[in-house]
Amino acid sequence: MDFLVFQLQGAMAAWGDTAVGEFRPSLDAPGLSSLVGLLGAALGLRREDEAAHAALRDGYGYAVGVQAAGRLLRDYHTAQVPGQTSLKKRPHASRRDELALPRDELNTILSTRDYRQDAACLVALQPRGEAPYSLEELAEALRYPRFALYLGRKACPPAAPLFPQVISADNAESAFEDYLLQLTARLDVLDKVHSRHGLPSPQALERLIWGDGIRVDLVPDLTTSRKDRPIRRRGWQFGDRTEYQAFFRPEA
């Protein structure tokens, strides 16, 4: 069976968890909504196209191989926003339009936002019966994305090429192993041509996270419920799904 595998590395990442009030936490690995959004951006899908995103959500099984969860960075965030009354009957297509108001009509909101520093992981996709795109089409979109890609928030761009590869393997864990061999070989070639290409050697996986719809032959060490199944973008509605984890190192 075929899998699409790619890497996500960044100086900072923000994998959103359930947010209540002014606190915006981050998990230590991307969830379903993050991966669907990333693929949608690569394909050039508009955020309001809920049907297209639902097809990406239901058309593939997803697995994440965590190489490094990253260190927690907590940011105390302030931002200016106009009141809803001030925005009525005023065009505001951009942030600049929103703030083009007298100072006494602007408010300040406070929030705490979490980030993960130096996080790295691999992602595997396996198509299901209703997959809207072939794995080759998704790989091409990740190589040449229509919209800018980022790791959860716009302030978190990828620090290395995603290097998407379509790999034939018996299961996701074998696909990850083959991918790491291909990535290491590619970096060795770059090192011979450009002795300072700046890309670190790939790290081994410390754990594997997966949901339904993808072939994983490991026995899970942990089974949890995660509310990251996107339902409606307009209402920021997410549903529950079951997530499985297997640990390769005790310290993970």
Summary keywords:
6 helices; 252 residues; 11 strands; two-stranded antiparallel ribbon
Characterization of this structure:
The chain has 252 residues and is an alpha+beta fold. Helix 1 (32-43) crosses helix 2 (50-58). The relative contact order is 0.24. The protein contains six helices and eleven strands. The model has no long low-confidence stretch (mean pLDDT 89). Helices cover 24% and strands 36% of the residues. The strands form two sheets. Strands 1, 3, 5, 6, 7, 8, 9, 10 and 11 form a nine-stranded mixed sheet that branches. Strands 2-4 form a two-stranded antiparallel ribbon.
Classify the secondary structure makeup into a structural class: alpha+beta
Which value, in Å, is the CA radius of gyration?
20 Å
Order of helices and strands: EEEEHHEEHHEHEHEEE
Global geometry: globular
Largest sheet: 9 strands, mixed
End-to-end Cα distance, whole Å, is: 29 Å
The helix fraction, in percent, is 10-25%
Mean pLDDT: 89
Low-confidence stretches: none
| Total helical elements | 6
Residues in β-strands, percent: 35-45%
Number of strands: 11
Task: Give a brief description.
Helix content is 24%, strand content 36%. With 252 residues, it is of the alpha+beta class. The strands form two sheets. Strands 1, 3, 5, 6, 7, 8, 9, 10 and 11 form a nine-stranded mixed β-sheet that branches. A two-stranded antiparallel sheet has the order 2-4.
